[in-house]
Amino acid sequence: MMSTSSGRPDTSRSACQDPKSCYRNEMSALIRQFAISALRRLLGRADLRSYVRLRRLAFEKRMFKEPISAPQLRSAFEKLGVKAGATVWVQSSWNEFYNFPGKPSSVIDLLLDLIGPEGTLVMSAIPLKVDDCKILEIHREPVSTGLIAETFRRYRGVKRSIHNSSSVIALGPRAEFLVKDHQLTETPWDPESPYQRLMEADALCVGLGVGRFLATLTPLHAVESILRHENPDFAAIFHGSTTYRWRTREGDEGTHTYLNRNGAFDAAWLGRHYPRDQYIEFRLSNLWMWSIPARDAIMTGVSLGRRGINMYRMPWYRRLIA
Q1: Of 302, 311, 307, which Cα lies nearest the Cα of 226?
Q2: N or C: which end of the chain has fewer CB within 10 A?
Q3: What angle is formed at CA 105 by the lines to CA 104 and CA 110, rounded to 5 degrees?
């Protein structure tokens, strides 16, 4: 673990390990920023990604009107591989559940019922406001990862990892194993993080309404942490650092410094390179769903990364909305 006493971002490690990779990344970022600025002026919109998402959502609400019942949703979860005793990582978008008459808690309760008392449910819980100037009280901080995750955060017994930018919440027998020591990691996705521990727990990663396969999967960043010591392209992704202070409900306090990740990426584009037999993907009414074992998601990404294929090396036209 890195540490400083200032409580402010530490730039002592901001120098890039591979100048050529850094130069390519910086030039790519400049070109992307120029193109995005031009599109913003053309469309009169500051947030292009939200603009595209809302336009797509409005169109699909007119196209897809078939209701989704609770039994249908349960059957879909079973088809994805959600079963008794499983550890299941879920990333979701409640906005896409407009054909389901239930509440966010209805989705959570269905998942918990399927995995049973021996299973563990896990979700991303990135803090709503990342502010390294204030003390992070992780038990109080709302999440930025959607209404389903925020509802789950409030469930009795849910545990949460201590991290300023990449926190995780979990409920079940493996929850403590998954969330402990996150505040000791050098990058948010190191071997001691919840993300790589998903592999040890033989977890299943599930996407609900977050786009096509692999479009949104936070554990995929573990690929960068695994390869940064052997590949200069991945080492160049990390430069600069952030330091913050944290405090738990029990009154424990500490300071944590982690390396910053930099650069635009497109996981959906990377997903095209995954073997089709590794994952399940289908659509229920408007709702895209997919699943893949955490080990396959991460280690296939590692294998592709070693061949020069990664979510940061996308075609130029994908960079405009990445």
Answers
A1: 302
A2: N
A3: 105
